[in-house]
Amino acid sequence: MELGKTFDPKSAEEHWYQRWIDLGYFKADPARPGPVFSIVIPPPNVTGQLHLGHALNVTLHDVIVRTRRMQGYNTLWQPGTDHAGIATQNVVERELAKEGKSRHDLGREAFVARVWQWRETYGGRILNQLRRLGASCDWSRERFTLDPGLSRAVTEIFVRLYREGLIYRALSLINWCPRCETALSDLEVDHKDTPGHLWYMRYPLADGSGAVTVATTRPETMLGDTAVAVHPDDGRYKSMIGKKIMLPLVGREIPVISDPSVDPAFGSGAVKITPAHDFNDFQIGRRHNLPQISVMDPHGRMNEAAGPYCGMTREDCRLKVVEDLTALGLLEKMEPHQHAIGVCSRCETVVEPRLSNQWFVRVKPLAEEALAAVRDGRTTFHPKFWENTYFSWMENVYDWCISRQLWWGHRIPAYWCERCGEMMVAAEPPAACIKCGGGDLRQEEDVLDTWFSSALWPFSTLGWPERTPELERYYPTSLLITGFDIIFFWVARMMMMGLKCTGEVPFRDVYITPLVRDQFGKKMTKSRGNVVDPLQIMERYGTDAVRFTLAQLSVQGRDLILSDDRLAASRAFANKVWNAARFVLMNLEGAPQPLPRAEIAGLPLAERWILASLDGAIAEVSAAIDRYEFNVAALRAYSFIWHEFCDWYIELAKEPLKQAGERQTAVRWVLVRCFDGLLRLLHPFMPFVTEEIWQALRPYIDELGLAPHLAIAKFPAPQPLRTLDQDEAAAMERCIAASEAINSLRSLLGYHPGQRIEARVKFLGGNEAAEFRAEFEQWKPYAATMAKAASLGLAGPSATAQDGMVTAVLGWCEVAVLAPEGFDFERARAAIRKKLDEVTAHLNQHQARLDNPDFVAKAAPEMQEQMQQRAQELAGQQKLLREQLRLLEEAN
Ligand SMILES: [Zn+2]
Ligand SMILES: [Zn+2]
User: Fold this and answer.
1) Secondary structure (3-state) at 335
2) Rg of the chain, C-alpha, whole Å
3) Four-CA torsion 48, 123, 79, 393, nearest 10 degrees
4) How far apart (Å, rounded) are the C-alpha atoms in residues 70 and 91?
5) CA of 429 relative to ligand 2 center, distance in Å
6) Residue 171 · residue 356 · CB < 8 Å
7) Which helix (H) or strand (E) holds 621?
């Protein structure tokens, strides 16, 4: 099989992905022996579109899953999607709105049918995009949070928690979105700092003995006031406590009460209490047994309790109340006031606290176990500092409102008897009322918060509550990879539900992915217009290059800065591997298939060195993956391939490959062994280019039970091959250092890349000279090849550099290169001086700006960092040029 001149990512991606799927390589089989590696995908919303966060997340999943699969683990990567209650309902409602309809026009059943229809058409889009990234999920096990199995798990847990008193229904104040017409959890409310006002309103005492001034940001809620509260120690109001107030506009008598939670320093020190429209007031109202008067309807309009204001919007009512109070002379003043306003995270409508009957999970008892499990190490976060975020949330939990007034979701399994009002919670609809025997039952209209079903994902997808072979084999899962923004929404709730339902943690490790930023370190947002579309960059650079870049930049605990340069460098890397493969394959023409194994102990130094380097790379890459240091693993694979293998070994192999014989056979075997090894190491990061090359290389590989495809070939095991002793390793290091020093002199002296040179090496350090002489003879041919030296001699201890020789000093030796004939030292020095002047001037400019306090105070931090970086680069160039100038000056 021959490789084309250049790598074509597109055809390789389509071809190999389909092959792997057709051959069932990603399918998990609980009956297969071996250690287990299992992981669940964070289910993307059915409404989702692939973004960089997904791309990063899925790449890291795939790197570890492919590695474990190749290491012989029984591997399961569980895919699926989330029904995303409010998000999906909104999408379909918007679609209906275009037809001039609302969900109410359709009715619940028809609307839900319409959402299912939408999901059939578009719900698979996001998963197809994950496939394009090469995700090796077991697609035959795809699940959906609303499918029958998962719905059964949801009902089962709801009933169980209800019976244990961990789920309850209560009249409570909750966040309400008047547009979405549903309850929201605190986490679904965004807080926006908004300029507003503080109104000071005068409330007359009922006995006519004066008035109290209260300050509020929401005058319209005064229609629902049921008290005025002051601090018990506030001298200004002590005498008024217990008196009655005649609430203006409403004409209702309300008491003046004292409560220690009132801040005497805020406003006038007296506050109006509206238990049905404010969370603090709700608490105070409970303590003092105050009535709760709701003055708004579910749409955010004033209701009958608002009297003459009934029917107005919240906003209009505010204006009217202020106007009416002003007319009565009861508005004392108005001050500008900045405060945080809660808005719906889905639609940005201002949230209204609303008194209603909702369902809650009692979180505290569940949180205790979930806290303990992370404290005692049953589950570990990577990086570990995220555990603090987890702890601080879990230590301050409040009950979780799980009911939503939506139609798309798991309907709550509660039933009311229409005759006697009895409520029953049951997995199956009861046939008759357990109290009166009546048959007329009505199911709860509310559905569950989407996160309720997501919290069960690690075990509901494996068949819980049945004890399926999958659940037995793959639970607890090995690892969870997710973003920091859903540690509480999702990770914490999975911990609580997993421990509650199965007695075990849902996953042993949690890896928190970095946040992806643009090349200037800015967060990617629609408004900045710097959002990178992963599908576009995959098209442009190839999927392998995108995956490699993301993995290489995933430093634990740091943001990921993505740039075109990085992507282009990864594409160049894929091409480098491709070209190396073409070279190797060209030199295997006519070789036996498979190649006969060489006797490693009898191989020359260079061959044993590259085999030892491969072993070193294998050990380091494997260990880094085990620690979830994806960047370290990717970079180590990269440096082995680019430097040790391509730069060095391929160069050294060229000569021996030219002549048939034992040496050629051995070098061919070493090339194939190394290339096979590096392809296996690189496959989890760059699956497509590696599979394509490996297929061409495969016939030459001598391995018992060799896999038909790289996707399921064995990952190289770290092993102490000991192909090289310590002295030999040190000798190769010196060989490389000397060759590199000679090559720097070559370019300083202006040699063309192909030109042969004359060079010398002189060992420093006297006594060991004889030893070094023997060592030098061993590596001299390698250094001569690498430096393209026509002659490479050893200078005697007393030999002085001959005329026209330029010398560089390493710690243990000097290397010298003869200048080309007619080399004009004066001109060369002048050229370097000129360059040195330019660089120095440039560097001084940068330094001056960096030293300028004005710049430091005003410039953006990213700008300063860039400037700092550039100054460092220039300083490096300056140092190099000075060194070069010195070498040329010493030469003559
Ligand atoms: Zn909303
Ligand atoms: Zn009944």
Assistant:
1) strand
2) 37
3) 40
4) 41
5) 14
6) yes
7) helix 605-626
CA distance 578 to 159: 58
Say how many Å lie between the CA of residue 177 and the centre of ligand 1: 5
φ/ψ of residue 560, rounded to 5: -105, 120
Q: Which residues contact 461 (CB under 8 A, 6 or more apart)?
A: 40, 78, 80, 141, 143, 150
Nearby residues for ligand 2 (ion, Cβ within 5 Å) = 417, 419-420, 422, 433, 435-436, 438
The DSSP H or E segment spanning 196 is strand 189-204
pLDDT in tens, 540-557: 999 999 999 999 999 888
CA dist., res. 293 & res. 305, Å (int): 7
Tokens of 48: 């989702």
Total number of residues shown for the chain: 892
How far away, in angstroms, is 400 Cα from ligand 2 center? 29
Task: Give distance in angstroms: CA of 75 to centre of ligand 1.
Answer: 41
Range scoring the smallest mean pLDDT among 101-115, 285-299, 814-828: 814-828
Predicted local confidence at residue 810, as pLDDT: 80
CA distance 858 to 836: 31
Using CB atoms within 10 A of its CB, is residue 146 exposed (0-12), middle (13-18) or buried (19+)? buried
Residue 694 contacts residue 713 (beta carbons within 8 Å): yes
Distance (Å, rounded) from C-alpha 623 to C-alpha 618? 8
Tokens of 115: 């959402």
- Those residues whose C-beta lies under 8 Å from the C-beta of residue 807, and which sit 6 or more positions away, are 801, 814, 815, 816, 887, 890, 891
Q: Which residues contact 809 (CB under 8 A, 6 or more apart)?
A: 764
77: closest CA among 91, 59, 62? 62
Report the alpha-carbon distance of residue 742 to residue 759 in Å, rounded: 7
Do the Cβ atoms of 362 and 165 come closer than 8 Å? yes
Using pLDDT thresholds of 50, 70 and 90, give the confidence band for residue 469. very high
Look up tokens 């200004």; give the residue: 236
Ramachandran region, residue 329 (left: φ > 0; alpha: ψ -120 to 50; beta: rest): left
